[in-house]
Amino acid sequence: GAGAAGGAMSSDGAAPRAAKRARRSAAADVGHGAQQQQQQQQQQQQRQQQQQQRQQQQQQREAFVERKAGPEAPRLEPRARATAEEMSLLERLVYPMPAGEFMRDVWTRKALVVRGAAARLDSLKANYLFDLDVREMLENTASEKIFAWLPGRPAAATGETGQAEDRDGPIGSVELGSADNGMTAFESGASLYFRSSQRAADRWIPALTESMGLGFAGRYNDGDVRGEIETFVSHPGNLTPAHFDYMDTNFTIQLAGCKTWRLHRSTVQNPLRGCTPHYKLSDDTLEQQAKVNQLEDPEYSSAQARPGPEVVVEEVTLAPGDILYFPGGLFHRVEVAGTEVSKSINFSLMTTNWADFIADSLRQLMWTDARFRAPISLSDAAYVTPDSGTDARQVDAQASRGPLARKHLASLLGQVGDWLMADESSTGLHPADMLSKAIVQRQEPEESDNDGDDEDAAAAGGDQSDSADGDDEDDDVDGQDEPIRATDGDDAAGAQGVSSDRPNGGTLSPPSATLGAARYRVNCLAALVGPEPAEEEGKNRYTMHSHFGNEDISSAVQCELVLPERVTPVLSWLVRAKKSESPAFTLASICRETAPFTRELGAEKISELLEMLSEAGFLTKL
Length: 622
Fold this sequence. Notes:
By secondary structure, the chain is α+β, with helices and mostly antiparallel strands. Helices cover about 35% and strands about 20% of the residues. It has helices at about 1-60, 90-95, 100-105, 120-130, 135-140, 180-185, 200-210, 285-295, 355-365, 370-375, 405-420, 430-435, 435-440, 455-460, 570-580, 585-595, 595-600, 605-615; strands at about 65-70, 110-115, 145-150, 175, 190-195, 225-235, 240-245, 250-255, 260-265, 315-320, 325, 330-335, 340-350, 520, 525-535, 540-545, 555-565, 585, 620. The strands form four sheets. A nine-stranded mixed beta sheet has the order 1-2-11-8-13-6-5-3-4. The longest helix is centred in the first third of the chain and has 61 residues, at about 1-60. It is globular, with a radius of gyration of 34 Å. The chain starts with a helix and ends with a strand. About 35% of the residues are buried.
Protein backbone atom coordinates (compact mmCIF):
# COMPACT_ATOMS: atom_id res chain seq x y z
CA GLY A 1 0.00 0.00 0.00
CA ALA A 2 2.83 2.38 0.84
CA GLY A 3 4.50 1.56 -2.45
CA ALA A 4 1.34 2.20 -4.39
CA ALA A 5 0.76 5.45 -2.58
CA GLY A 6 4.32 6.47 -3.20
CA GLY A 7 4.00 5.63 -6.87
CA ALA A 8 0.85 7.66 -7.12
CA MET A 9 2.52 10.62 -5.50
CA SER A 10 5.45 10.31 -7.85
CA SER A 11 3.15 10.15 -10.82
CA ASP A 12 1.17 13.14 -9.61
CA GLY A 13 4.38 15.20 -9.11
CA ALA A 14 5.77 14.32 -12.52
CA ALA A 15 2.94 15.98 -14.37
CA PRO A 16 3.64 19.49 -13.04
CA ARG A 17 7.35 19.04 -13.63
CA ALA A 18 6.74 17.92 -17.22
CA ALA A 19 4.49 20.90 -17.75
CA LYS A 20 7.18 23.20 -16.38
CA ARG A 21 9.75 21.64 -18.65
CA ALA A 22 7.41 22.08 -21.58
CA ARG A 23 6.84 25.70 -20.68
CA ARG A 24 10.55 26.28 -20.27
CA SER A 25 11.21 24.59 -23.60
CA ALA A 26 8.54 26.66 -25.28
CA ALA A 27 9.90 29.79 -23.65
CA ALA A 28 13.40 28.84 -24.78
CA ASP A 29 12.10 28.30 -28.30
CA VAL A 30 10.38 31.66 -28.17
CA GLY A 31 13.52 33.28 -26.77
CA HIS A 32 15.71 31.59 -29.35
CA GLY A 33 13.36 32.67 -32.11
CA ALA A 34 13.36 36.23 -30.79
CA GLN A 35 17.13 36.15 -30.60
CA GLN A 36 17.36 34.88 -34.17
CA GLN A 37 14.93 37.55 -35.28
CA GLN A 38 16.97 40.21 -33.51
CA GLN A 39 20.17 38.94 -35.08
CA GLN A 40 18.52 38.95 -38.49
CA GLN A 41 17.37 42.53 -37.93
CA GLN A 42 20.87 43.55 -36.88
CA GLN A 43 22.37 41.84 -39.91
CA GLN A 44 19.84 43.55 -42.15
CA GLN A 45 20.67 46.91 -40.56
CA GLN A 46 24.38 46.24 -41.07
CA ARG A 47 23.79 45.38 -44.71
CA GLN A 48 21.77 48.55 -45.14
CA GLN A 49 24.51 50.60 -43.49
CA GLN A 50 27.15 48.98 -45.65
CA GLN A 51 25.07 49.65 -48.73
CA GLN A 52 24.63 53.28 -47.68
CA GLN A 53 28.37 53.59 -47.08
CA ARG A 54 29.08 52.14 -50.50
CA GLN A 55 26.60 54.56 -52.06
CA GLN A 56 28.20 57.47 -50.19
CA GLN A 57 31.66 56.35 -51.23
CA GLN A 58 30.47 56.03 -54.81
CA GLN A 59 28.96 59.52 -54.66
CA GLN A 60 32.22 60.83 -53.23
CA ARG A 61 34.20 59.11 -55.94
CA GLU A 62 31.93 60.52 -58.58
CA ALA A 63 32.08 64.01 -57.12
CA PHE A 64 35.75 64.49 -56.27
CA VAL A 65 36.22 66.66 -59.36
CA GLU A 66 33.86 69.56 -60.05
CA ARG A 67 33.85 71.48 -63.31
CA LYS A 68 32.83 75.06 -64.01
CA ALA A 69 32.82 76.98 -67.29
CA GLY A 70 33.74 80.63 -67.01
CA PRO A 71 34.21 81.96 -70.55
CA GLU A 72 33.61 85.50 -69.29
CA ALA A 73 35.74 85.08 -66.17
CA PRO A 74 37.44 88.32 -65.10
CA ARG A 75 41.16 88.79 -65.50
CA LEU A 76 43.30 87.73 -62.57
CA GLU A 77 44.24 90.55 -60.20
CA PRO A 78 46.06 90.28 -56.84
CA ARG A 79 43.24 91.83 -54.81
CA ALA A 80 43.11 90.74 -51.19
CA ARG A 81 39.62 92.01 -50.43
CA ALA A 82 36.47 92.36 -52.44
CA THR A 83 34.69 95.67 -52.88
CA ALA A 84 31.36 96.58 -54.39
CA GLU A 85 33.09 97.15 -57.73
CA GLU A 86 35.91 94.61 -57.69
CA MET A 87 36.24 90.91 -56.88
CA SER A 88 38.90 89.43 -54.64
CA LEU A 89 41.56 87.10 -56.00
CA LEU A 90 39.74 84.01 -54.71
CA GLU A 91 36.53 85.12 -56.41
CA ARG A 92 38.42 85.56 -59.66
CA LEU A 93 40.10 82.17 -59.40
CA VAL A 94 36.91 80.17 -58.82
CA TYR A 95 34.48 82.22 -60.95
CA PRO A 96 31.61 81.55 -61.59
CA MET A 97 31.46 79.58 -58.31
CA PRO A 98 30.83 81.91 -55.33
CA ALA A 99 33.85 82.12 -53.02
CA GLY A 100 31.75 81.08 -50.02
CA GLU A 101 30.60 77.95 -51.81
CA PHE A 102 34.20 77.11 -52.66
CA MET A 103 35.34 77.39 -49.04
CA ARG A 104 32.36 75.36 -47.82
CA ASP A 105 32.18 72.57 -50.39
CA VAL A 106 35.47 72.38 -52.26
CA TRP A 107 38.43 73.55 -50.18
CA THR A 108 40.46 70.58 -48.85
CA ARG A 109 37.69 68.22 -50.08
CA LYS A 110 37.85 67.88 -53.86
CA ALA A 111 39.21 69.33 -57.08
CA LEU A 112 37.71 72.17 -59.08
CA VAL A 113 38.30 72.83 -62.77
CA VAL A 114 37.47 76.32 -64.07
CA ARG A 115 37.52 76.95 -67.81
CA GLY A 116 38.45 80.47 -68.89
CA ALA A 117 39.76 82.46 -71.80
CA ALA A 118 43.53 82.83 -72.17
CA ALA A 119 43.21 86.62 -72.35
CA ARG A 120 42.29 86.77 -68.66
CA LEU A 121 45.96 85.99 -67.90
CA ASP A 122 47.50 88.79 -69.99
CA SER A 123 48.04 91.15 -67.05
CA LEU A 124 49.50 88.36 -64.90
CA LYS A 125 51.93 87.30 -67.62
CA ALA A 126 52.99 90.82 -68.59
CA ASN A 127 53.43 92.32 -65.14
CA TYR A 128 54.68 89.38 -63.08
CA LEU A 129 55.86 86.57 -65.39
CA PHE A 130 58.01 88.45 -67.94
CA ASP A 131 55.61 87.53 -70.75
CA LEU A 132 56.64 83.90 -70.12
CA ASP A 133 60.22 84.46 -71.30
CA VAL A 134 62.02 81.45 -69.81
CA ARG A 135 65.41 83.12 -69.40
CA GLU A 136 63.97 86.16 -67.63
CA MET A 137 61.90 83.97 -65.35
CA LEU A 138 65.01 81.97 -64.46
CA GLU A 139 67.09 85.09 -63.85
CA ASN A 140 64.46 86.49 -61.47
CA THR A 141 63.49 83.32 -59.62
CA ALA A 142 63.37 83.33 -55.82
CA SER A 143 64.73 79.77 -55.84
CA GLU A 144 68.25 79.13 -54.64
CA LYS A 145 68.32 76.10 -56.94
CA ILE A 146 66.64 75.27 -60.23
CA PHE A 147 65.56 71.69 -60.82
CA ALA A 148 65.66 70.00 -64.21
CA TRP A 149 63.73 66.81 -64.98
CA LEU A 150 65.12 64.47 -67.55
CA PRO A 151 63.05 64.17 -70.74
CA GLY A 152 60.13 61.77 -70.45
CA ARG A 153 60.27 58.51 -72.39
CA PRO A 154 57.82 58.20 -75.30
CA ALA A 155 55.00 55.70 -74.91
CA ALA A 156 56.55 53.26 -77.41
CA ALA A 157 59.97 53.18 -75.74
CA THR A 158 61.36 49.72 -75.18
CA GLY A 159 64.16 48.40 -73.04
CA GLU A 160 66.88 45.90 -73.77
CA THR A 161 64.43 43.03 -73.34
CA GLY A 162 62.08 44.41 -75.97
CA GLN A 163 59.43 45.06 -73.30
CA ALA A 164 57.77 48.46 -73.11
CA GLU A 165 59.42 50.48 -70.35
CA ASP A 166 57.42 51.73 -67.38
CA ARG A 167 56.80 55.43 -67.98
CA ASP A 168 55.36 55.77 -64.47
CA GLY A 169 58.53 54.62 -62.76
CA PRO A 170 60.59 56.92 -60.51
CA ILE A 171 62.01 60.00 -62.19
CA GLY A 172 65.23 61.82 -61.43
CA SER A 173 66.04 65.51 -61.18
CA VAL A 174 69.23 67.53 -61.41
CA GLU A 175 69.96 70.63 -59.32
CA LEU A 176 71.16 73.58 -61.36
CA GLY A 177 72.83 76.55 -59.78
CA SER A 178 72.32 79.31 -62.33
CA ALA A 179 69.94 80.65 -64.97
CA ASP A 180 72.48 79.86 -67.67
CA ASN A 181 72.64 76.23 -66.62
CA GLY A 182 68.85 76.17 -66.52
CA MET A 183 68.61 77.48 -70.08
CA THR A 184 71.17 74.98 -71.29
CA ALA A 185 69.22 72.13 -69.73
CA PHE A 186 65.92 73.44 -71.12
CA GLU A 187 67.31 73.82 -74.64
CA SER A 188 68.64 70.26 -74.35
CA GLY A 189 65.15 68.91 -73.73
CA ALA A 190 64.91 68.95 -69.93
CA SER A 191 61.83 70.30 -68.16
CA LEU A 192 62.29 72.87 -65.39
CA TYR A 193 60.87 73.51 -61.94
CA PHE A 194 61.58 76.70 -59.97
CA ARG A 195 59.84 79.36 -57.93
CA SER A 196 58.50 82.61 -59.35
CA SER A 197 60.11 85.96 -58.62
CA GLN A 198 59.87 87.16 -55.04
CA ARG A 199 57.95 90.20 -56.23
CA ALA A 200 55.23 88.03 -57.74
CA ALA A 201 54.98 85.90 -54.60
CA ASP A 202 54.80 88.99 -52.38
CA ARG A 203 51.83 90.29 -54.35
CA TRP A 204 49.78 87.21 -55.12
CA ILE A 205 50.20 84.87 -52.15
CA PRO A 206 49.17 87.39 -49.43
CA ALA A 207 46.20 88.39 -51.58
CA LEU A 208 45.15 84.75 -51.83
CA THR A 209 45.54 83.98 -48.12
CA GLU A 210 43.56 87.05 -47.13
CA SER A 211 40.82 86.55 -49.72
CA MET A 212 40.43 82.98 -48.37
CA GLY A 213 40.10 84.30 -44.81
CA LEU A 214 43.11 82.35 -43.52
CA GLY A 215 44.25 85.19 -41.25
CA PHE A 216 47.17 84.41 -38.96
CA ALA A 217 47.13 80.76 -40.12
CA GLY A 218 48.31 81.90 -43.53
CA ARG A 219 51.50 83.47 -42.19
CA TYR A 220 54.48 82.63 -40.05
CA ASN A 221 54.91 84.57 -36.83
CA ASP A 222 57.48 86.85 -38.47
CA GLY A 223 54.85 87.93 -41.00
CA ASP A 224 56.10 85.90 -43.98
CA VAL A 225 53.37 84.12 -45.92
CA ARG A 226 53.07 80.34 -45.71
CA GLY A 227 53.11 79.77 -49.44
CA GLU A 228 54.89 80.21 -52.75
CA ILE A 229 54.38 80.29 -56.50
CA GLU A 230 55.82 77.28 -58.27
CA THR A 231 56.75 77.49 -61.97
CA PHE A 232 56.71 74.52 -64.35
CA VAL A 233 58.19 74.71 -67.86
CA SER A 234 57.79 71.31 -69.56
CA HIS A 235 58.51 69.90 -73.00
CA PRO A 236 55.92 67.87 -74.96
CA GLY A 237 55.61 64.34 -73.65
CA ASN A 238 57.04 65.19 -70.22
CA LEU A 239 55.34 63.01 -67.61
CA THR A 240 55.15 63.37 -63.85
CA PRO A 241 53.91 60.04 -62.43
CA ALA A 242 51.08 59.87 -59.92
CA HIS A 243 51.69 61.27 -56.42
CA PHE A 244 49.96 63.49 -53.90
CA ASP A 245 51.21 66.60 -52.07
CA TYR A 246 50.59 67.75 -48.51
CA MET A 247 49.88 71.43 -49.27
CA ASP A 248 46.24 72.20 -48.52
CA THR A 249 45.76 74.75 -51.28
CA ASN A 250 46.96 74.40 -54.87
CA PHE A 251 45.72 76.62 -57.70
CA THR A 252 47.38 75.59 -60.96
CA ILE A 253 47.07 78.15 -63.76
CA GLN A 254 47.79 76.95 -67.29
CA LEU A 255 49.63 79.75 -69.10
CA ALA A 256 50.76 78.15 -72.38
CA GLY A 257 50.48 74.74 -73.96
CA CYS A 258 48.31 71.97 -72.53
CA LYS A 259 48.56 69.41 -69.75
CA THR A 260 46.48 66.31 -69.09
CA TRP A 261 45.82 65.51 -65.44
CA ARG A 262 44.66 62.09 -64.25
CA LEU A 263 43.21 62.39 -60.74
CA HIS A 264 42.15 59.79 -58.20
CA ARG A 265 41.49 59.80 -54.48
CA SER A 266 43.80 58.59 -51.76
CA THR A 267 42.74 57.29 -48.35
CA VAL A 268 44.37 60.22 -46.53
CA GLN A 269 42.64 63.57 -46.12
CA ASN A 270 44.63 66.66 -45.08
CA PRO A 271 47.96 64.79 -45.08
CA LEU A 272 50.97 65.92 -43.06
CA ARG A 273 53.36 64.48 -45.63
CA GLY A 274 53.04 63.71 -49.30
CA CYS A 275 53.12 60.41 -51.12
CA THR A 276 55.86 60.74 -53.73
CA PRO A 277 56.94 57.35 -55.07
CA HIS A 278 57.56 59.04 -58.43
CA TYR A 279 60.79 60.49 -57.07
CA LYS A 280 63.96 58.53 -56.45
CA LEU A 281 63.82 59.11 -52.70
CA SER A 282 65.72 57.59 -49.81
CA ASP A 283 64.14 54.81 -47.79
CA ASP A 284 64.04 57.14 -44.78
CA THR A 285 61.86 59.65 -46.64
CA LEU A 286 59.45 56.99 -47.88
CA GLU A 287 59.27 55.50 -44.39
CA GLN A 288 58.50 58.90 -42.89
CA GLN A 289 55.67 59.39 -45.38
CA ALA A 290 54.32 55.92 -44.63
CA LYS A 291 54.30 56.18 -40.84
CA VAL A 292 52.61 59.59 -40.85
CA ASN A 293 49.97 58.70 -43.46
CA GLN A 294 49.21 55.44 -41.65
CA LEU A 295 48.00 57.49 -38.68
CA GLU A 296 44.76 57.98 -40.62
CA ASP A 297 44.79 54.86 -42.78
CA PRO A 298 46.64 51.90 -41.20
CA GLU A 299 46.53 50.17 -44.59
CA TYR A 300 48.08 53.11 -46.44
CA SER A 301 50.67 52.21 -49.05
CA SER A 302 52.44 54.19 -51.74
CA ALA A 303 51.09 51.53 -54.12
CA GLN A 304 47.86 53.57 -54.07
CA ALA A 305 49.58 55.87 -56.54
CA ARG A 306 48.91 53.26 -59.22
CA PRO A 307 45.14 52.87 -59.31
CA GLY A 308 43.61 49.50 -59.97
CA PRO A 309 40.63 48.91 -62.26
CA GLU A 310 38.19 49.42 -59.38
CA VAL A 311 39.44 52.97 -58.70
CA VAL A 312 37.65 55.90 -60.31
CA VAL A 313 40.07 58.09 -62.29
CA GLU A 314 39.09 61.51 -63.62
CA GLU A 315 40.95 62.97 -66.59
CA VAL A 316 41.21 66.72 -67.17
CA THR A 317 43.13 68.57 -69.88
CA LEU A 318 44.02 72.16 -69.10
CA ALA A 319 44.43 74.75 -71.86
CA PRO A 320 45.67 78.35 -71.51
CA GLY A 321 43.27 80.27 -69.27
CA ASP A 322 42.10 77.17 -67.36
CA ILE A 323 42.59 76.85 -63.59
CA LEU A 324 42.66 73.70 -61.47
CA TYR A 325 42.32 73.67 -57.70
CA PHE A 326 43.32 70.44 -56.00
CA PRO A 327 43.77 69.69 -52.29
CA GLY A 328 46.50 67.79 -50.53
CA GLY A 329 45.97 64.05 -50.57
CA LEU A 330 44.59 63.90 -54.12
CA PHE A 331 46.69 61.75 -56.46
CA HIS A 332 47.57 63.42 -59.76
CA ARG A 333 49.48 62.21 -62.79
CA VAL A 334 50.42 65.03 -65.15
CA GLU A 335 51.56 64.81 -68.78
CA VAL A 336 52.20 67.53 -71.33
CA ALA A 337 49.73 67.15 -74.19
CA GLY A 338 50.22 68.32 -77.76
CA THR A 339 53.35 69.64 -79.42
CA GLU A 340 53.78 72.96 -77.57
CA VAL A 341 55.91 73.62 -74.50
CA SER A 342 53.72 73.82 -71.41
CA LYS A 343 54.12 76.72 -68.99
CA SER A 344 52.12 76.84 -65.78
CA ILE A 345 52.30 78.18 -62.26
CA ASN A 346 50.89 76.88 -59.01
CA PHE A 347 49.78 79.00 -56.05
CA SER A 348 50.72 76.71 -53.17
CA LEU A 349 49.72 77.33 -49.52
CA MET A 350 50.75 75.47 -46.36
CA THR A 351 48.24 76.76 -43.82
CA THR A 352 48.75 76.21 -40.09
CA ASN A 353 46.64 73.25 -39.02
CA TRP A 354 44.52 72.90 -35.89
CA ALA A 355 46.79 70.25 -34.37
CA ASP A 356 49.82 72.54 -34.37
CA PHE A 357 47.83 75.52 -33.14
CA ILE A 358 46.29 73.60 -30.23
CA ALA A 359 49.57 71.85 -29.38
CA ASP A 360 51.48 75.15 -29.26
CA SER A 361 48.81 76.71 -27.05
CA LEU A 362 48.83 73.74 -24.69
CA ARG A 363 52.64 73.75 -24.60
CA GLN A 364 52.66 77.42 -23.60
CA LEU A 365 50.15 76.73 -20.83
CA MET A 366 52.25 73.82 -19.57
CA TRP A 367 55.30 76.08 -19.50
CA THR A 368 53.58 78.08 -16.75
CA ASP A 369 53.89 75.09 -14.37
CA ALA A 370 57.32 74.03 -13.07
CA ARG A 371 56.23 70.38 -12.99
CA PHE A 372 55.90 70.34 -16.77
CA ARG A 373 59.20 72.16 -17.25
CA ALA A 374 61.05 69.56 -15.18
CA PRO A 375 63.37 67.16 -17.04
CA ILE A 376 62.29 63.55 -17.50
CA SER A 377 63.89 60.77 -15.50
CA LEU A 378 62.83 57.15 -15.64
CA SER A 379 64.32 56.47 -12.21
CA ASP A 380 61.63 56.03 -9.58
CA ALA A 381 63.98 57.65 -7.08
CA ALA A 382 63.32 61.01 -8.76
CA TYR A 383 59.61 60.84 -7.85
CA VAL A 384 59.77 59.80 -4.20
CA THR A 385 58.01 62.41 -2.09
CA PRO A 386 57.64 62.68 1.70
CA ASP A 387 53.99 61.60 1.52
CA SER A 388 54.58 58.69 -0.88
CA GLY A 389 55.32 56.20 1.91
CA THR A 390 58.55 55.14 0.20
CA ASP A 391 62.03 55.54 1.58
CA ALA A 392 64.18 57.08 -1.14
CA ARG A 393 67.22 55.36 0.32
CA GLN A 394 65.66 52.01 -0.50
CA VAL A 395 65.05 52.86 -4.17
CA ASP A 396 67.77 51.85 -6.59
CA ALA A 397 68.21 54.78 -8.97
CA GLN A 398 69.06 52.49 -11.87
CA ALA A 399 67.21 49.26 -11.19
CA SER A 400 63.81 50.72 -10.27
CA ARG A 401 62.36 52.32 -13.36
CA GLY A 402 58.83 53.03 -14.46
CA PRO A 403 56.11 52.69 -11.80
CA LEU A 404 56.55 56.04 -10.05
CA ALA A 405 57.38 57.80 -13.31
CA ARG A 406 54.08 56.57 -14.77
CA LYS A 407 52.25 57.71 -11.65
CA HIS A 408 53.86 61.14 -11.98
CA LEU A 409 52.89 61.29 -15.66
CA ALA A 410 49.30 60.42 -14.73
CA SER A 411 49.18 63.40 -12.36
CA LEU A 412 50.45 65.70 -15.12
CA LEU A 413 47.84 64.40 -17.53
CA GLY A 414 45.25 64.99 -14.86
CA GLN A 415 46.30 68.64 -14.70
CA VAL A 416 46.01 68.88 -18.50
CA GLY A 417 42.51 67.45 -18.22
CA ASP A 418 41.62 70.07 -15.61
CA TRP A 419 42.85 72.81 -17.94
CA LEU A 420 40.79 71.44 -20.81
CA MET A 421 37.64 71.26 -18.65
CA ALA A 422 38.13 74.55 -16.78
CA ASP A 423 35.26 77.02 -16.62
CA GLU A 424 35.67 80.53 -17.98
CA SER A 425 36.62 81.97 -14.60
CA SER A 426 39.57 79.61 -14.14
CA THR A 427 42.92 79.17 -15.81
CA GLY A 428 42.62 76.76 -18.70
CA LEU A 429 42.84 76.29 -22.42
CA HIS A 430 39.92 78.46 -23.52
CA PRO A 431 38.90 79.06 -27.16
CA ALA A 432 38.41 82.76 -26.37
CA ASP A 433 42.06 83.01 -25.27
CA MET A 434 43.40 80.98 -28.17
CA LEU A 435 41.38 82.86 -30.80
CA SER A 436 41.63 86.22 -29.09
CA LYS A 437 40.46 89.35 -30.80
CA ALA A 438 44.08 90.39 -31.28
CA ILE A 439 45.12 87.28 -33.22
CA VAL A 440 41.88 87.04 -35.19
CA GLN A 441 42.23 90.66 -36.29
CA ARG A 442 46.02 90.58 -36.57
CA GLN A 443 47.05 93.26 -39.03
CA GLU A 444 49.46 92.32 -41.79
CA PRO A 445 51.58 94.75 -43.80
CA GLU A 446 50.01 96.04 -46.97
CA GLU A 447 51.86 94.68 -50.00
CA SER A 448 52.73 97.61 -52.24
CA ASP A 449 53.23 97.61 -55.98
CA ASN A 450 54.23 100.67 -57.95
CA ASP A 451 53.90 99.32 -61.46
CA GLY A 452 50.54 100.94 -62.07
CA ASP A 453 49.08 97.71 -63.38
CA ASP A 454 46.35 97.60 -60.75
CA GLU A 455 44.60 99.97 -58.42
CA ASP A 456 43.90 97.71 -55.46
CA ALA A 457 46.37 99.23 -53.01
CA ALA A 458 44.12 102.12 -52.06
CA ALA A 459 40.99 99.98 -52.09
CA ALA A 460 42.59 97.36 -49.89
CA GLY A 461 44.35 99.58 -47.41
CA GLY A 462 42.23 102.71 -47.32
CA ASP A 463 43.61 106.19 -46.61
CA GLN A 464 46.28 105.89 -43.95
CA SER A 465 47.47 109.49 -44.12
CA ASP A 466 44.87 111.22 -41.94
CA SER A 467 47.34 112.25 -39.23
CA ALA A 468 48.89 115.32 -40.77
CA ASP A 469 46.96 117.79 -38.61
CA GLY A 470 49.92 118.34 -36.28
CA ASP A 471 47.65 118.04 -33.24
CA ASP A 472 49.13 115.91 -30.50
CA GLU A 473 46.50 116.62 -27.85
CA ASP A 474 45.00 113.12 -28.11
CA ASP A 475 48.37 111.66 -27.16
CA ASP A 476 48.53 113.60 -23.91
CA VAL A 477 47.30 111.43 -21.05
CA ASP A 478 48.43 113.69 -18.22
CA GLY A 479 45.27 115.74 -18.24
CA GLN A 480 42.53 114.41 -15.95
CA ASP A 481 39.94 114.69 -18.69
CA GLU A 482 41.96 112.91 -21.37
CA PRO A 483 41.31 109.19 -22.02
CA ILE A 484 44.00 106.59 -21.50
CA ARG A 485 45.65 105.77 -24.80
CA ALA A 486 48.37 103.48 -26.01
CA THR A 487 50.74 104.95 -28.56
CA ASP A 488 53.68 103.96 -30.67
CA GLY A 489 55.95 106.96 -30.85
CA ASP A 490 54.64 109.60 -33.25
CA ASP A 491 52.49 107.16 -35.25
CA ALA A 492 49.12 108.79 -35.71
CA ALA A 493 47.46 105.42 -35.50
CA GLY A 494 48.67 105.23 -31.93
CA ALA A 495 46.29 108.04 -31.05
CA GLN A 496 43.47 105.61 -31.80
CA GLY A 497 44.74 102.58 -29.91
CA VAL A 498 47.74 100.28 -29.87
CA SER A 499 50.13 100.05 -32.77
CA SER A 500 53.37 98.30 -33.54
CA ASP A 501 56.17 98.60 -36.02
CA ARG A 502 56.17 94.79 -36.39
CA PRO A 503 54.24 93.30 -39.31
CA ASN A 504 51.95 91.41 -36.91
CA GLY A 505 51.24 94.34 -34.63
CA GLY A 506 48.53 96.47 -36.18
CA THR A 507 46.21 99.15 -34.87
CA LEU A 508 43.51 98.59 -32.28
CA SER A 509 40.14 100.29 -32.24
CA PRO A 510 39.40 103.05 -29.68
CA PRO A 511 38.20 101.98 -26.22
CA SER A 512 34.52 101.58 -25.57
CA ALA A 513 32.87 104.22 -23.40
CA THR A 514 30.39 101.87 -21.73
CA LEU A 515 31.76 98.75 -20.12
CA GLY A 516 29.45 98.53 -17.13
CA ALA A 517 30.03 95.36 -15.15
CA ALA A 518 32.03 93.60 -17.84
CA ARG A 519 34.08 90.64 -16.64
CA TYR A 520 37.60 89.85 -17.79
CA ARG A 521 40.14 87.06 -17.49
CA VAL A 522 43.89 87.38 -17.88
CA ASN A 523 44.84 85.47 -21.04
CA CYS A 524 47.14 82.59 -20.07
CA LEU A 525 48.70 82.76 -23.55
CA ALA A 526 49.85 86.37 -23.14
CA ALA A 527 52.77 88.02 -21.35
CA LEU A 528 53.36 91.68 -20.52
CA VAL A 529 57.04 92.62 -20.57
CA GLY A 530 58.07 95.86 -18.82
CA PRO A 531 57.93 98.53 -17.71
CA GLU A 532 60.75 100.38 -19.38
CA PRO A 533 61.05 104.19 -19.36
CA ALA A 534 59.54 105.70 -22.49
CA GLU A 535 60.92 108.66 -24.38
CA GLU A 536 58.06 110.80 -23.13
CA GLU A 537 58.41 111.94 -19.55
CA GLY A 538 56.00 110.33 -17.10
CA LYS A 539 55.31 107.32 -19.34
CA ASN A 540 56.40 103.69 -19.42
CA ARG A 541 56.78 101.31 -22.31
CA TYR A 542 55.41 97.74 -22.24
CA THR A 543 55.49 94.99 -24.84
CA MET A 544 52.62 92.52 -24.95
CA HIS A 545 53.37 89.09 -26.46
CA SER A 546 50.94 86.25 -27.07
CA HIS A 547 50.89 82.81 -28.70
CA PHE A 548 54.57 81.95 -28.40
CA GLY A 549 54.35 78.29 -27.35
CA ASN A 550 56.36 77.12 -30.35
CA GLU A 551 59.90 75.79 -30.50
CA ASP A 552 61.25 79.19 -31.59
CA ILE A 553 59.30 81.05 -28.84
CA SER A 554 58.28 83.56 -31.52
CA SER A 555 55.17 85.63 -30.83
CA ALA A 556 52.20 85.49 -33.17
CA VAL A 557 51.04 88.84 -31.74
CA GLN A 558 53.30 91.57 -30.38
CA CYS A 559 52.10 95.03 -29.39
CA GLU A 560 53.95 97.95 -27.89
CA LEU A 561 52.10 99.95 -25.23
CA VAL A 562 53.15 103.41 -24.03
CA LEU A 563 51.18 104.26 -20.91
CA PRO A 564 51.33 106.83 -18.10
CA GLU A 565 53.18 105.80 -14.97
CA ARG A 566 49.98 106.22 -12.95
CA VAL A 567 48.56 102.97 -14.35
CA THR A 568 51.61 100.89 -13.35
CA PRO A 569 49.99 99.61 -10.10
CA VAL A 570 46.97 98.42 -12.08
CA LEU A 571 49.14 96.55 -14.57
CA SER A 572 51.14 95.00 -11.72
CA TRP A 573 47.90 93.75 -10.17
CA LEU A 574 46.83 92.22 -13.48
CA VAL A 575 50.15 90.40 -13.84
CA ARG A 576 49.74 88.95 -10.36
CA ALA A 577 46.13 87.99 -11.12
CA LYS A 578 47.37 85.85 -13.97
CA LYS A 579 49.05 83.55 -11.44
CA SER A 580 45.94 83.11 -9.28
CA GLU A 581 43.61 80.12 -9.50
CA SER A 582 40.72 82.42 -10.42
CA PRO A 583 42.12 85.00 -12.85
CA ALA A 584 38.67 86.42 -13.66
CA PHE A 585 37.67 89.81 -12.26
CA THR A 586 35.36 92.78 -12.78
CA LEU A 587 36.00 96.50 -12.93
CA ALA A 588 34.67 96.81 -9.39
CA SER A 589 37.02 94.16 -8.05
CA ILE A 590 40.14 95.70 -9.59
CA CYS A 591 39.17 99.14 -8.34
CA ARG A 592 38.73 97.70 -4.86
CA GLU A 593 42.00 95.76 -4.91
CA THR A 594 44.13 98.60 -6.29
CA ALA A 595 42.88 101.39 -4.04
CA PRO A 596 44.02 104.12 -3.44
CA PHE A 597 45.40 104.23 -7.01
CA THR A 598 41.96 103.97 -8.55
CA ARG A 599 40.73 106.97 -6.64
CA GLU A 600 43.33 109.07 -8.44
CA LEU A 601 42.71 107.54 -11.85
CA GLY A 602 38.99 107.03 -11.68
CA ALA A 603 36.97 104.01 -12.70
CA GLU A 604 36.41 105.38 -16.19
CA LYS A 605 40.13 105.45 -17.01
CA ILE A 606 40.63 101.96 -15.54
CA SER A 607 37.71 100.82 -17.68
CA GLU A 608 39.39 102.25 -20.79
CA LEU A 609 42.65 100.53 -19.89
CA LEU A 610 40.92 97.16 -19.49
CA GLU A 611 39.22 97.55 -22.84
CA MET A 612 42.53 98.41 -24.49
CA LEU A 613 44.27 95.39 -22.96
CA SER A 614 41.38 93.21 -24.08
CA GLU A 615 41.82 94.31 -27.68
CA ALA A 616 45.57 93.81 -27.40
CA GLY A 617 44.98 90.21 -26.29
CA PHE A 618 46.35 90.42 -22.73
CA LEU A 619 42.84 90.19 -21.30
CA THR A 620 39.87 88.16 -22.49
CA LYS A 621 36.47 89.74 -22.16
CA LEU A 622 33.98 87.22 -20.75
